[in-house]
Structures are given as structure tokens and as C-alpha cells.
Amino acid sequence: MPSTLSLASRRVLRLCAAAVFVTTLVACSKAEAPKEPLRAVKVLTVAGGALNVEGEYAAEVRSRVESRLGFRVAGKLVQRSAEQGQRVAAGQLLAQIDAQDYQLAAQAALAQVSAAQSQRDLAAADFKRFEALKAQNFISGAELERRDATLKAADAALNQAKAQAQAQSNQAGYARLMASHAGVITAVEAEVGQVVSAGQPVLRLAHDGPRDAVFAVSEQMALALKVGQPMQATLASTGQTLKGKVRELAASADPITRTYAVKLALDASDRLPLGATVNVLAAQLPGSQSAVIKLPTSALRQEGQGTVVWLLDESSMTVNTQSVQVGPVDGNEVVITSGLKPGQKVVSAGVHVLSPGQKVTVYGAAASGAVPAPAAAASTPAPTAQR
Questions:
Q1: Helix/strand/coil for 325
Q2: Can you give the residue range of the structural domain that contains 353?
Q3: Of 232, 247, 236, which is closest to residue 275 (Cα–Cα)?
Q4: Phi then psi for 223, rounded to 5 degrees?
Q5: So what's the pLDDT on residue 204?
Q6: Using one digit for the tens of pLDDT, what is the confidence trace for 85-139?
Q7: How far apart are CA 171 and CA 75, in angstroms?
Q8: Residue 90 to residues 77, 94, 178, 179, 204: CA-CA distances in angstroms?
């Protein structure tokens, strides 16, 4: 029995020793660290370019001349024959107010003309009769002069009555609102039955002829624009390209939006639809330069309080950071004011995964130079204990 237990103990001891040996062997062996694969990056060559400071605005096509039509006398609107969007001809009747009172006043003025005419005829007959009496020395010269003064007063009264009659006749005619020019009715501001005052706008008429593109700009842009400056506009509905020049700049800002209205005179715009939208492009504004360095925004990286880019060293195919100063933005590109020179290679994509001194390859190059990752080491099987 004791011999049997001794044999079992020896087997247990051998198994424990084998396990310790394997554990020590595994702990002492060092696995080779895999090499970091080369990263492929996109690279661009720094070169000078042009900076075109420009602005684009949405504008509305309007008539160059637009009149707000109203009656020259007050009254009740009894007829309106024009509607918004209607095309009218010059001299066409647009609206009418009740003219009965003005017609009565005109008739009264004509009656005054008749009375003044009668007084004048009587004074003329008296003067002729007294003139004959003076020739026969039946009256004095003073009496004839009084008759002459009476005739002159009658003539003045007649002229005054005729002028008043003409004025009253005009007042009656002002009860009819006529189109001053051919054009399109763009707004209706009074309805039938409404009592309007003299000069109150009833209709708005856009005259036929040249058109303007009207848009609003900020104060800074208003200072940059000049009267006569050429611009280009594109009709939004058809894509038609139009050329024009700044015709008018507002002298004061809008009290609500604090923007300045700009009117762009469009060439060959007589047939443009009123109210159409055009995109106005103002190019070569102050600040434009002919030779600047521009980089895409994807090439920039914030580091601390500054901006850096990754420069590629072609001799060692490594990258390192370079501090730069940025300027104005031009679309998807940023102007670099200092820190770069033409001919340098700058990483334009993948900047967030790089580190200083890291080796890289150029994306799309013939030889990528990538190093394959090492295969995983095969595990060493543990020795089998013998029975």
C-alpha cells in the first residue's frame, strides 16, 4: 500500500514540474511587436492662385419707373376697371369716383360766366354810347373815364369767371383716373365704395421699358459698391445670363432691416417678367488679389491656439507640422497669409490620424510601399504528461 501511494505522489510531482516549466517558458519568451502599417495620404503642391472676393444676392425684377396712381380730387370710388397683373394702354380708364358734385360746380361756374359776359356787354355798350356823347361835348371827360373803368372791370370779371369755370370743369374731369403710360398694374390699393382723398394711391402702375434688379446689401458691401460698377445676373427660372451696371445706391439704410437697397440696370431687359428672381453676382470686390496661396479646409488642423498643416518630406517620406496664418475664406478654400512657400507638399486629407515623423505613402502612387502586417505567431502546444 505505501509503495502505491509513493508512485502516485511521484507522478503528481512530475506533472507539477512540467506545468511550472511550460509557464516559465511562455513568460520568458517575447512576442515580436507588429510593425505599424504605412498610411496613405493625399498630397497637393503649394502654388499661387487668384483670390476673387465676390458676393451673390437674390434680386427681384422691377420696372425702372413705377407710379402710384391716385385721383387729384376726393370722392367715393364708384368704378374700378383695372385688376392686379392686368396690362393697360396709355390713356385707358382705370377707375372713376362720383363726379356729380363736381359737375354741378362746373355748371354753376358756367352760369357765372354767362352773367359776367352780360355785365361786360352792358359795360361795353355804355362806354360806346358815352364815347359818342363825349364827341358831341355833352359829357365831361371824367364821366367817360368812369365808363372806361367800368368796362375794364367787367372784362376782368368775365376772365375770372371763365378761369373758374375751366377749373371746375377740370375738377369734374379729375374724377376719371386714366393710365399715364402703358404698363402693368402691380397693386390695387382701393376698392369700389371706398371714399378716397385727393392724392391717395389707388393703383400701382409699372411702366413698360427697361427693368432693374433690386436687392439689399449690408453696410460693408454698400461701401464697396460704386455706381456704374458692372455685375452679372442670372434669371433663376431659365438660367438666362444678363449683364448690368449699378444704377442707384440707397443713401440711407432701411429702418427695419438696416440694409441698403441697390438697383442694377439690366441690359436688354424690356421683356423680363416683373417679379422674377435673378441671382446677382458681384465679382472683383475690394480685397481681391492676383497671387495668393489657398488650401482646402481639409488640410488645416487646430493645434493649441494656432493652425498647422502637415508638410511632406519627400526624401524620407515623413510628415511634420508647419504653423500657418490663415486669411479670408474663398468658398471651400482658405487663404494662407504666411507659413508656406510655393512648391512645398502639403497633406490635404487624413490629417487627423498623423503624428510627427510618421512615414506615409502618397495615395494613388504606383508603389504604395505598404508593409504587410506580420502573421500571428503559432501557439506552442503544452507538453503532454506521460503516464
A1: strand
A2: 41-50+288-362
A3: 236
A4: -75, -25
A5: 95
A6: 999 999 999 999 999 999 999 999 999 999 999 999 999 998 898 888 888 888 8
A7: 11
A8: 21, 10, 8, 5, 14
